[in-house]
């Protein structure tokens, strides 16, 4: 280590995307190593709209490992954090920055304590895969800080031990998490199927129905499904392997009809397995409070809206998928369809009177522009979707919190610009 | 036929129970013959509270077949009615009533037209198996009228062709519909597992959440599941055969824990298969109108209430099962538990202020008495269920239409008392 111990702080800042599974991960065969019962496939979401930014720092002046999430200090004592930290420290290499006079040898890393600050630009733990982006970002940033030589797939196997779906956030575009066979998990890792440019017609609209934390954690929900659902094993062994092959083919060929059909069917099957669990898991819902009682209804309304439209068009225009939380992820065939989708969604779910359109539709505002919507007057003037035959067409003002317009996006990046760091370069404490 | 043709009306009046499946029937292997993809098991409900009464009549004065359901004339031209009529006419035998001077030979039956009047003492087509009771009653009454010699199981194979679950309404108590192997369906019929006295501790409380007709008919829903759900075949081939064996054993031994566990798991799995269908079937719900938007919530609240209570007791006290419609059928271990169940249900779902308690809890009023509830003051004074830890415990006034307290009941009966007939013995027209 450098002579002037305590005088320096070495930091790395990285940004990592979240991802949405189109073939779902549900069920672990090993809870500690986080080894899944089936392969899964995801689309990485553009980090411009949904991402985690993490700064990791070491300094001889730090006396214990500390972490801040969204500016609030949280405990690092959990097994999942510890597993990731241990795995990365085991892979740390010699590091030298002659300019700053910092030299850290491989053996020194385990004596140095870490400060970690992480920030999500979207609601935590509401089914928008915040832990996926978070653990991916932590592992990626630590690997860069500690000069680890592992490639992205090898890092994904470490991130997997923090949160299963985190392994898929190590890549942009379309990503497969291979379940692997090794009982130690060495081959349970992510690979990129295609980058974000491969199919850049796709537009993604997320309807955030509730930003509240979900009632059943994924971990306990999965465990209960594995233990009690008689359909889960059949899904894992018989259904998913075929769907994985079909989905890879659909992505390769940019075959939207197959992609949408598989995505919707797999989302529904995941929720079916949750319902087949004892006691049944009601993910899209919260049964204890009236104010959240419309969440599941809203999700079903969104499914119905998409199903009706797809049927009226004769071929799928939009795919829907729901993770463990009441937020709909809608994938539109192209930008034109996305504008039509947004028109439909805004017709059915107009913002509350006290909500500003600008904060109701966030992310890529060009979709709003394409939809011809510049203000609330345009929302009010929207005609009912022609495929809806209920007269008058029902509206559900306020049932959606907000919409995020986004697209398939890139994988993790490092920020060399120190102004983006979440820790003060002098003190190593949150800015 | 008798000489004075046109002067007489020959009638039979029968009453047939409805039934609730505890191992569900979902999916046909033959749509015309109504042959299922798996065996099912049901409990027959006491006809004192839920039944169909049907009067069938022949007279040389009738010039075509006619039917009235709940006093409204309906068409008999449907294939299902025609199949049942044809099958029974094929089995008609010579009949003679010397007193009335009526003599009908086997060959004469097909020349005689029928008048049929049927009445359900509960809402039609809302998932309370009205078509089950209806077709069972039609076939049973016609068989008696036409002096057919078939036993109940043989008649069940005819009723099955009207509505699959109707075959299970030919018996009281606990009934199995054997799927059979014959491609013509001759061995797809119901058998009684145990009569209604075998396990007479059980009390059944039905929460009628909506008496509205369901949006997706069972027939088209089943067809879509068979065509699109990859979980349905696994359920039919692998899951249900094991559950049938376990359920028969549970019924034989009056093993409530196993009975309840199997009943709840199978109800949830049936709904899981509906969700795994493309497009997904949302049975417990109606997505198009706000006023019905709480139905599914209510069902989930009832499931949650039962699950929490069962867990807090350490062993199941109550089983729940939901058919294709938003009504919960709750089966309590015994009368004492049923009273506690009713207390919980009335606490969570008190009647609307304009609803009279007497019409809110119908059927076997002794459960209300055992629960210590004589009037609205007693409902208001109910303490929250101790296992609910939300403070204050939420109440959902008006979300349940009414409750029916009942029990396992007897099979079809004939009424010899002509005052119970629904047709005028002189004219053969509805009274």
How would you describe the overall organization of this protein?
Two copies of one chain form a homodimer. Chain A has helices spanning 79-90, 130-145, 152-159, 218-228, 232-252, 256-275, 295-313, 335-348, 357-360, 366-370, 376-380, and strands at 10-17, 19-23, 28-30, 35-36, 40-44, 51-59, 66-69, 72-74, 95-97, 102-104, 113-120, 174-178, 189-194, 203-208, 318-322, 327-332, 361-363, 402-406, 413-415. Chain A is of the alpha+beta class. Chain A is globular, with a radius of gyration of 22 Å. Residues 286-293 of chain A have low confidence and may be disordered. At the A-B interface, helix 5, helix 6 and helix 7 of A face helix 5, helix 6 and helix 7 of B.
Overall pLDDT of chain A: 91
Number of H/I helices of chain A: 11
Indicate the overall shape of chain A. Answer: globular
How would you characterize the largest beta sheet of chain A?
6 strands, mixed
What is the number of independent domains of chain A?
2
With strands numbered from the N-terminus, the spatial order across the biggest sheet of chain A is 8-7-11-6-1-19
Strand element count of chain A: 19
* Beta-strand share of residues of chain A: 15-25%
Report the C-alpha radius of gyration of chain A, rounded: 22 Å
* CATH class descriptor of the largest domain in chain A: Alpha Beta
Order of helices and strands of chain A: EEEEEEEEHEEEHHEEEHHHHEEHHEHHEE
Distance between the termini of chain A: 26 Å
Quaternary arrangement of the chains shown?
homodimer
Instruction: Return the CATH topology of the largest domain in chain A.
Output: Alpha-Beta Plaits
- Do you know the CATH architecture of the largest domain in chain A? 2-Layer Sandwich
- What would you call the structural class of chain A? alpha+beta
Which chain pair shows the most residues in contact?
Answer: A-B, 40 and 40 residues
Query: Which spans of chain A of ≥5 residues are poorly predicted at pLDDT below 50?
Result: 286-293
Q: In CATH, what is the homologous superfamily of the largest domain in chain A?
A: GHMP kinase, C-terminal domain
Measured as a percent range, the helix fraction of chain A is 25-40%
